[in-house]
Amino acid sequence: MANINLFQPASLADFLISDAVSKQTIERIVNGQLPFPMSKQAICLWGVNGTGKTTLAKMLPDLIEASGNLMPTANANSMWQSQHYYQVTSCGLGNNSVSLLQDLHKRSQSVVHTSPKGYYYEILDEVDLLTPATQASLKALISNATETIFIMTTNFPEKLERGLKDRAHMIEMNQPKPADMEQMGRHFLRLMGLTGNEVNAALLQEIAVASQGSMREYCSAIVTIGVDLGGTI
């Protein structure tokens, strides 16, 4: 039976973050070297389709909670502590902006289902699809909901309200360098029981360029090659 989770990222190191400054920022937050949340209460992952923004967004609550520098709130280790301390909202799935914002306000005022450090995490996927008025209200909520951490994703950062971007660490996740994707391709081949050296660098980098930054497209192409070479999943 195929292992559908074989290629799923298990840590921050499994993501290819294209921009060096963004890579350093998110690593410092996760490693506890950059105090968070402080002046910025949110993280926004932005870039082209398929680079792993939503996947990373869903992993960040656990990664941030493990940070040694995350300041605990008054609700830390309380009776309300829960394993379900984050909510994923797809802003593009026909969500009404008014009701979405009302739900965010309601959850920000509740102490139920807090993390070990006393926070609740709101993951807003494709946040650029919110109306300008809703984005402005979200900006105010981020400033005032001090026990809620907001993690957002977008393919179009230019569509975000300026104040919303100012309140977030903007993490660029665009097309990685072909050489970096080549190494990831070899990693995928090794996961399939191969040596990783069966395919030459030129072909792996050619596939990387053709994928236009989409790790989904790249992984699919590498898996096809791996199966043809006798690899298993």
Automatic annotation (TrEMBL):
InterPro entries: AAA+_ATPase, ATPase_AAA_core, DNA_Rep/Repair_Clamp_Loader, P-loop_NTPase. Residues 39-178 form the AAA+ ATPase domain. Signal peptide: none annotated. Gene3D superfamilies: P-loop containing nucleotide triphosphate hydrolases. PANTHER family: REPLICATION FACTOR C / DNA POLYMERASE III GAMMA-TAU SUBUNIT (PTHR11669), REPLICATION FACTOR C SUBUNIT 4 (PTHR11669:SF20). It comes from Sapientia aquatica. This is AAA family ATPase. One of its GO terms (biological process) is DNA repair. The keyword Nucleotide-binding applies. Keywords: ATP-binding, DNA replication, Nucleotide-binding. One of its GO terms (molecular function) is DNA clamp loader activity. The keyword Endoplasmic reticulum does not apply.
